[in-house]
Amino acid sequence: MDIRLKPIGVVHSCFKEKFGIPRQPGLVPDARADLELLPPFNRQEAVRGIEAFSHLWIIFLFHAAAREDWKPTVRPPRLGGNRRIGVFASRSMFRPNPVGMSAVALESVDCSADAVRLKLKGIDILDGTPVLDIKPYLPYADAIAGAAGGFAPDAPPTSLEVEFSPEACRQCRERQQAGHRDLKPLITQILRTDPRPAYHARVSSQRTFGMKLLDVDVQWRVAGNKITVEALVPKPNQSTQNPD
Description:
Strand order of the largest sheet: 1-2-7-6-3-8
Strand content: 25-35%
Distance between the termini: 42 Å
Order of helices and strands: EEEEEEEEHEHHHEEE
């Protein structure tokens, strides 16, 4: 059987690198993206009626994690990164076929003569991700009462406190005055999920972490249960579109 899949669209996301992306959709409500449909799928009739749904399933490729070899077991961050489970018992991006799926909120639909863009919210998808399909989320079928969540029965705890240095506050304020969105809620939501690798999260670290978000590099430190955002360093020559 020879089946060839063709991307129907591409995601323009606030996440410019894998580090910092939430490990599941919906954990960072302010994380936004535009899903741009590609020709010949960028037709208004292809999304007719989609605005009636509050959420969508996005089927996509883990294009930045694709590899020829695969392993039957993975180390989920939720288990501390030191316990292996079967790849098919996980949502790891390292899979025999690098296909992902996310249930995200649909904010609006923008259509013009030659463009169709879906405004999404609560995303966990890397910028530039190819999209294979879009399906409406059906609450009566997709939300299963009493379903068991295995090793992840509930959302991860968000016990970390996030604060902004005076310099970071100034940079957020100046960015907002220039007509951009306020980044403080988005950064706070992301960092409260603790995006550090599991081996960093197990110990207190004074190293500075960097996270590419929209057109800035967010620099932050961790001490105990407190994260301090130290600076937002502008990234020059951002060529990708930003859902700002």
